[in-house]
Amino acid sequence: MSGASPEREKPPGCKRSACGVASTLDLLGDKWTLLVVRDLLLGKRTYSEFQKSPEGIPTNILAERLRRLQQAGIIEKMQYQDRPVRYAYTLTDKGRDLGPVLRSMVVWANKYIPGTFTLEEVDAMIGQVGRDA
Amino acid sequence: MSGASPEREKPPGCKRSACGVASTLDLLGDKWTLLVVRDLLLGKRTYSEFQKSPEGIPTNILAERLRRLQQAGIIEKMQYQDRPVRYAYTLTDKGRDLGPVLRSMVVWANKYIPGTFTLEEVDAMIGQVGRDA
DNA sequence: GCAGTGACTTTAAATATGTAAGTAACACGT
DNA sequence: ACGTGTTACTTACATATTTAAAGTCACTGC
Q1: Considering only CA atoms, which residue is closest to the C1' of nucleotide C10?
Q2: What is the pLDDT of residue B9?
Q3: Mean pLDDT computed over B82-86
């Protein structure tokens, strides 16, 4: 009835605030998403490689997170062969630039959570994925 | 009944892996926890100040997160007056050292998410909470 | 032709989150 | 003394997300 616009309070999916922390958490704020980014930074590229990580991500969560990261422009999916068809995921610049966020977490954790790797140990792991002894 | 120990597979609350990213996410990996830490870094100290933040944290979530952060040794709760009784939350060293994690998120968000503050803008906000015009 | 692999999807149950209302202790004004 | 307001929460319940487990589909290698 009334011509008064019903002041649409929150277009769903909209940012919570102009704060970068809040916006980052809107996208990456859960227990799994950044672990996928970590795996990619370490050199993993395929669905099954992500599944083999020690944290044991549930397969449906992995599929959904890969979809979201792709939609957010943080990763790209490419088919690297037919017959059988196989896919590789890679980080975009936007994804690679999350490196400092993960590094600061590693530094913090190493200082306050016993048993976690140092930044140096993590750096030494980069690219060592799937290289068999 | 049976004496056979039911092989308790996972002592709940145990780390998922030795990776600092995973351990950090076990503690802080959700949409709200780091926003409370952010508010504390900005100078907020009371329950109602946290509630007034633009993201609008639900009150039960806020209470639960404050409890968890306290148990994790990231914040401390102190009564700063009786009659009426009032509480202030403060960061411990462990909590203050999350600064670099939040800063790297702000930098990333400012580069890739339109409309988010720069690190400089955020730094200028520190301590400006509750100062009325 | 059949077990095995990679990359997922589907289903149901457990858990977490969001929304709203309620509680308790106290201060302030009338 | 009473009603209103503030701070700091708790409780109840509906909804959404996560988890575990099993299933699908294309294909390969034996």
Answers
A1: A60
A2: 37
A3: 93
Total count of residues recorded for chain A: 133
Q: What does the angle CA B52 – CA B87 – CA B48 come to, to the nearest 5 degrees?
A: 10
Smallest CA-to-CA distance from B17 within B26, B29, B28, B8 is with B26
- Closest nucleotide C1' to the C-alpha of B89: D8
Tell which residue, B34, B44, B33, B21, has the closest CA to residue B105.
B34
**A89 vs A45: CA distance, rounded Å:** 5
B26 in contact with A at a CB cutoff of 8 Å?
Answer: yes
Which chain A positions have a beta carbon within 8 Å of B98's beta carbon?
A: 108
User: B108-122: per-residue pLDDT in tens?
Assistant: 999 999 999 999 999
Alpha-carbon distance A46 to A65, whole Å? 13
Strand C lies under 7 A from the Cβ of residue A77: yes
Cα radius of gyration rounded to whole Å, chain A: 18
pLDDT in the model for residue B129: 77
Strand-pair category, B75-81 with A86-91: unpaired
Find, among B18, B26, B29, B13, the residue nearest to A53 by Cα: B18
pLDDT digits (tens, 9 = 90+) for B42-73: 999 999 999 999 999 999 999 999 999 999 99
Give me the CA A10–C1' D3 separation in Å, rounded: 36
DSSP 8-state assignment for residue A74: S
